[in-house]
Amino acid sequence: MPVFTIETTYHLPVYRQRSYQAATAEDACRLAVDDDGWEDGSEDVDTSGETYVTGIWEGQDAASSGATVKIPDAFCETVQRKAAMFDELLVILREPARPMGLSEYQFGSWLPRALALRRKADAIVTGR
After folding, report:
1. How confident is the model at residue 127, as a pLDDT?
2. How far are the Cα atoms of 64, 71, 73, 118, 127 from residue 77, in angstroms, in the given order?
3. Source organism's superkingdom (predicted)?
4. Within a 10 A sphere around the Cβ of 100, how many other Cβ atoms?
5. Coil/strand/helix, residue 24
6. Is the domain of 55 the same as that of 88?
7. What share of the chain is helix, strand, coil (3-state, %, to 5)?
8. Which residue, 45, 70, 75, 108, shows the most beta carbons closer than 10 Å to its own?
9. Contact 23, 76 (CB under 8 A)
């Protein structure tokens, strides 16, 4: 039976609470985001993200040295799957919105891609 080395990752939020003097809440947010000091940061283990696969290699203890295996979509980070799909959906949704409309040929090409993307979206939403 084959052996695979799997690298998994999860995001561990680190937060800080600081006060900023600014003219508006938006200005205060900009100051907070631009503030590079994290010496007073705290880990929030209660809200860590999902565990997802970030690497697969053929072989025992083969991280970064064995043959790379493509990560199945179902094991990639959900938020990244959704972000990647957004671009695909935007492209396909623009097609029927063209003022000239779709010809029968164009519709025949568009419909299978739209249905495939819908299945992909359904899989992401249901956690598959």
Report:
1. 72
2. 20, 11, 9, 19, 11
3. Bacteria
4. 6
5. coil
6. no
7. 45, 15, 40
8. 75
9. no
According to the model, what pLDDT value does residue 104 have? 81
- Model confidence pTM above 0.90: no
**pLDDT of residue 124 exceeding 90:** no
State how far Cα 104 lies from the chain centre. 35
Output the six-digit token pair for 80. 């990244």
Of 41, 51, 36, the C-alpha closest to 14 is: 41
Question: Are the beta carbons of 57 and 65 closer than 8 angstroms?
Answer: yes
pLDDT attached to residue 101: 73
What is residue 100's three-state secondary structure? Answer: coil
Q: What is the pLDDT of residue 71?
A: 97
Both tokens of 126, joined, read 């249901």
How many structural domains does the chain have?
2
**Residues spanned by the domain of 127:** 77-128
* Whether residue 38 sits in one domain with residue 101: no
Q: CA–CA separation, 56 vs 7, rounded Å? A: 6
